[in-house]
Amino acid sequence: MKFATFEAGGGVRVGLVDTDRNAALDLAAAAERAGRSPAPVLSMLALIDAGDAGLELARELARSEGPWTQLENVRLLSPLPQPRQMRDAMSFETHIRQSGRGGRALQARAEGGEAAFKAALAAPTEPLADVYRQRPIYYITNRLIVGGPETVVRWPRYSQVMDYELEIAIVTRGTRANIPEGEAANHIFGYTIFNDFSARDRQMQEMAGRLGPAKGKSFDGANVLGPWIVTPDELGDPQTLNVEVRVNGETRAKGTTANMLFTFPQILAYASEDETIFAGEVFGSGTVGNCCGLEIGRFLESGDTIELHVDRIGVLRNRVVAQA
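The structure corresponding to this sequence follows.
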């Protein structure tokens, strides 16, 4: 199943999406028509908290007559407008190595201009640091600045280097500490696309202090999720997804989610060591290799439209605009 949060009829609703019909079912309205309590489907967090009973209700309502609404007649929001927590991992070796080189290239450009930037980008990448194979490294990011599909990201005035990152993300279900790795898959409610917008110039300055990222990643609307959440039974293996980045219709990168350094169950099990993981948290995979401007030396310009395509999930589209 695919679950979305959308605006329609002056309110915010949770819907079941049928991409073949290009339509969304208002689950609360459908529940009321069926004489069922709408409480489990009044918000995405309510649906997640309802557990198996909520999913079974959604399956039952999917067989009802509606009300179904064409997607072009609703405004999709972030499927989870305010996660209970947001964490982002570093799971792809290619990205880790190439983004390190990209950071050095940005520093070279600041000191020596475009020629120095291009020369640094052409240099070999450094070997992967051992820690990335020893631990599923992640950081906690701002859960209160989440944007959704088609939103305009107003770039922070302190940054002139606009960048994107294509990631997949899980949304958790159940609340528990010390989750055994063999049981961690049961704590995944579903998958979505995550565009981790990044103010690269500020990020590079902050990371020199060996703490962060802070303002390089945290500004209003920077954490974009969407277009909906796909349940594990429909998505299948999350490490078999082809992905693509398009900017203004031009393909800038293609990649695959194969060969994550750690799987999502491994990341969940690690994060839960003597720490409670709550239902409704978001864990980003980290950037798929080649799927950010820092790796390939091409950043965004004000007015650009960026589309992130992920197999079996969909397309997450946004536009970036520099503030005056």
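The two ends are 42 Å apart (CA to CA).
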